[in-house]
Amino acid sequence: MTPDNFSRREFLGISAAAGSLAATTILLAPEPLLAARRPVAPSDRVRFGIIGVGMQGSGLLADSIKLEGVECAAACDLYDGRHVLAREIVRPDLPVTRRYQDLLADKNIDCIVAAVPDHWHKQVVVDAVSAGKDIYCEKPMSHSAADGVAMVAAAKKSGRIVQIGSQRVSSLICGKAREMIASGMLGDLMLVEGWNGRNEPNGAWQYPPPFDLSPNNLDWDTWQGDVPRRAFDPVVFARWRCFREYGTGVAGDLLVHLISGMMVMLGINEPPTQASAVGGIRHWKDGRNMPDVHACLYSYGDVPVYMRLNLATSMPETYRFQGSKGLLEVTGSGLHFTPQTGTDSSPSYYTASFPRAMREEYMRKWHEDNDARVAREATSESISYRSGDYDDLRPHLSNFFNAVRSRTPVVEDAVFGHNAALACHMANESYFRKTAVHWDETSKGIRG
Q1: H or E stretch including 203?
Q2: Does residue 423 surpass a pLDDT of 90?
Q3: What is the dihedral of CA 61, 67, 73, 77, to 10 degrees?
Q4: How far apart (Å, rounded) are the C-alpha atoms in residues 278 and 295?
Q5: What is the CATH number of domain 34-168?
Q6: Per-residue pLDDT at 291 exceeds 50
Q7: Where are the domains of the chain?
Q8: N or C: which end of the chain has fewer CB within 10 A?
Q9: For 302-344, how does the pLDDT look when each residue is reduced to its tens digit (9 = 90+)?
Q10: Which H helix or E strand runs over 25?
C-alpha cells in the first residue's frame, strides 16, 4: 500500500476523533398498588365472579383475591375439574357452576373476570355488560374484527367498564419509555421493531390435557360455541390456541403484547393502516393450523413497524425504537437509551479518493471546524432503567377493581383493546390471504 492509497477502514482508524459514551443506570421504583394503599370498608368491597379457571384464569383468580377489598363470590367453568381448582384457590365452599349466566344474574356480584378461549370473548363480554356487569376480559379482546366491533358497541351502549388484559399497558417499563419518547429524546421516529420467541413444547402450547377429561365432566358442546362441530378431542380443548376456529395463534397470544405495549409507549390508540405478513408452520407439525413463525410489517401512519414471532427460537420480548437522535431498546426488565448526534464524528472517508495535498487540506480544515464539537458530543450519556422484580399483572387487575369501585376510566378500555386486537387480526388475515391488507374504517372491516 502506498501512502496515497488508504482503505476506508484504515482511513477511519487514522482520522476518527472517537469518544466513548458515559452510562447511567437507574432503578425504577413502582408506585404502591392503589387497591392496597388503605383498608377498604366492607361497603366498598368488590365482589367478582370468574368465568374460566384454566391456565390464565387460575392465575388471575389467585392474584385478584390478594388485592385489598377484592373478593371472589363464584366461579364458572365448563370443566368440573376446574371447579375443584377454584375452590382450592379461594375456599372449599365457593359457589361453582357450568353456566356463566348464573354469575351475571347474581345481584351480589359486582363484576366479572373472564379468561375463556378467544372464540367465546365476544359473547361473554356482550352478555356481561348487557346484564349490567363490569368485566375484565383476557387478551386478545376479540376473535375477529367483527367481534371486536360488536364488543365496542355493546360497551358504549351499556356504559359499563370493560378492561382488556394486555398488562403491558400497566407496565412500569412501558410507562417510562412513553415518558422518554414524549420528551423528544428520540427525535424523529424512523422505525419500530419488536420480537418474541420461545423454544419448547410448553411455549408452543403443547399442553397436556387433564387426565380425566371426558364428555361426562366437560360440556364439550357448549365449549365449541358457534364453530363447526367436531368430535370430543381433549387435545383441542387443551391446545385451542393452535387452531384458528377457537384461537388467534401467536398473533393473539404474543403479538398482542408487543402491539399494546408499543401503543402505550408511542401514545397512540389506533389500528395500523396496512399489514403484510409472512410465516408458516415450520416446526410444530402437530396438526395445528395456525403458524408457529409469523412476521408482519405494519404502517402506523407514516411509521413502519416490524413485528416477528417464533415458536422454535427463544428470544426475550424486545422492542427497538429507532429515532434520528438515538436508539431506545425496551425489554421485560428494563430499557436502554443510546443517544446519537446525527452528525459526522470523523472526516469523510470519501476523501481517500482525493490527491494527497487536497486530502491533507480537507483534513486540516475538518479538524479545525469540528474537533471541539466532537469532544463535546463524546461526553453524551447513555441511560438505562431497570425495574427489578416487577409484575405488571397485579397493577393491571388493581386498576380494574379500583375503576369498578370508583367508576373512573380504566387504562385499557374496549376501544384500546379493539385497536390492539385489530393489528393481530390483520396479521392473521394477511398470512392466510397471502397478500397485504388494510383496515377500512368506513366499513369496519379488513380489506385486501
Answers
A1: none
A2: yes
A3: -10
A4: 5
A5: 3.40.50.720
A6: yes
A7: 8-25+342-377, 34-168
A8: N
A9: 999 999 999 999 999 999 999 999 999 999 899 999 999 999 9
A10: strand 22-27
